[in-house]
Automatic annotation (TrEMBL):
Residues 13-335 form the Adenosine deaminase domain. This is adenosine deaminase. Keywords: Hydrolase, Metal-binding, Zinc. It comes from Salinivirga cyanobacteriivorans. GO terms for molecular function: adenosine deaminase activity; metal ion binding. Belongs to the metallo-dependent hydrolases superfamily. Adenosine and AMP deaminases family. InterPro entries: A_deaminase_dom (IPR001365), Ado/ade_deaminase (IPR006330), Metal_Hydrolase (IPR032466). It is an enzyme of class 3 (hydrolase). SUPFAM superfamilies: Metallo-dependent hydrolases. Its cofactor is Zn(2+). One of its GO terms (biological process) is negative regulation of adenosine receptor signaling pathway.
Length: 352
């Protein structure tokens, strides 16, 4: 009988759809970037950096969870830093058999030292392309608007997304502090995205209730929901999400850290999965949450009792929900299915 331990879970082909670039930089790399570009960090050694930036169990809110990003973005203001961070994130993902990775970030956070938005994005895309050349991984870039920024900034980022459609950018997101910053305020940017047939995902139902999810779907036309943890509070909306096969990008560790849920025991992921909702597992931020995608799958097994039979569908959900052209998605899905079947995980052909 197969043991669902870390090594077995690591060996499985996986896809990740919700991973922030600026929350997933290696501490060693951050330290070296800071030395190179003369950036003052809040600690005096590389060894202390990881502990300083990882929020741990003492985090009290999403707003507190977001504070370390001021530090991480401080070293990501140069093209070489952005290139390296992108490549190394892909390298870390590939090392645990992530075959498809969507990296999201907001270029507007990386122009404090004079880079243009296009230069920021070009550096990330360069890192993506080199990683795809060197590693067994496919990567898509998602550009994030920020809720707490002026909607005009979000519109500018939407225009950037349109310009880079089919050039490595696969979608548009709205991230940042959720409470008091409604998604509908940014609807003009999303109209531009939607009218240009670009995929959308919105952080919603993490630090605010179902109303936030409702806005993400009906004002911003979200094709996927970032987190969606509090969806269960509105049964009618929950059924709508299920009926329309809107995937949830769930991040177990960060959901507990941000107090989106008070504990793993209170997390609704298994309830959603059992209902048939298209649930996916993700890291959110590898550095800030001190996690890996394999660890998130390990939590699914140990905290929620996911069986081997159920795990394979969690994995397939992620591949099915990728922001990719159908032909590319089907090819990735077929390859993943073959790998899973070699591991003894047979996939029903009618799984939706």
């Amino acid at each position: 009988m197969t043991k669902l331990n870390y090594e077995f879970l690591k060996s499985l082909p996986k896809a990740e759809l919700h991973c922030h670039l600026d929350g997933s930089v290696r501490p060693k790399t951050m330290w070296e970037m800071a030395q190179k570009h003369k950036v003052k960090l809040p600690v005096d050694s590389e060894e202390k950096l990881a502990d300083f930036l990882a929020v741990g169990d003492k985090c009290e809110s999403l707003e507190e969870y977001l504070r370390p990003f001021d530090v991480t973005t401080s070293v990501l203001q140069w093209e070489d830093s952005l290139y390296r961070a992108t490549y190394e994130l892909a390298e870390d993902a590939a090392e645990e058999n992530v075959r498809y990775l969507e990296i999201r970030f907001s270029p507007v956070l990386h122009i404090k030292k004079g880079l243009k938005l296009t230069e920021v994005l070009d550096a990330v895309i360069k890192g993506k392309k080199q990683a795809e050349k060197d590693l067994n991984i496919t990567i898509g870039i998602i550009i994030c608007g920020l809720r707490h920024f002026d909607p005009e900034v979000t519109l500018k980022l939407a225009e950037l997304t349109v310009a880079y459609k089919n050039r490595g950018v696969v979608g548009f997101d709205l991230a940042g502090a959720e409470r008091d910053f409604p998604a509908k305020d940014h609807k003009e940017a999303f109209y531009l995205i939607i009218n240009n047939n670009i995929n959308t995902t919105v952080h919603a139902g993490e630090a605010y209730g179902p109303e936030s999810i409702h806005q993400a779907i009906h004002y911003n036309r979200a094709n996927r929901l970032g987190h969606g943890t509090r969806l269960f509070e509105d049964g009618d909306l929950l059924n709508y999400v299920n009926d329309h096969r809107i995937p949830l990008e769930m991040c177990l560790t960060s959901n507990v850290q941000t107090k989106s849920v008070v504990s793993f025991e209170k997390h609704p992921i298994k309830f959603y999965f059992d209902m048939g909702i298209r649930v996916t597992l993700n890291t959110d931020n590898r550095l800030i949450s001190n996690t890996t995608l394999t660890r998130e799958y390990e939590l699914a097994v140990n905290e929620f009792g996911f069986t081997k039979e159920e795990l394979k569908y969690l994995i397939i959900n992620s591949f099915k929900s990728a922001f990719l052209p159908l032909k590319e998605k089907v090819e990735l899905l077929r390859n993943a299915t073959k790998e899973l079947e070699k591991k003894g995980l047979q996939i029903r052909k009618d799984y939706v």
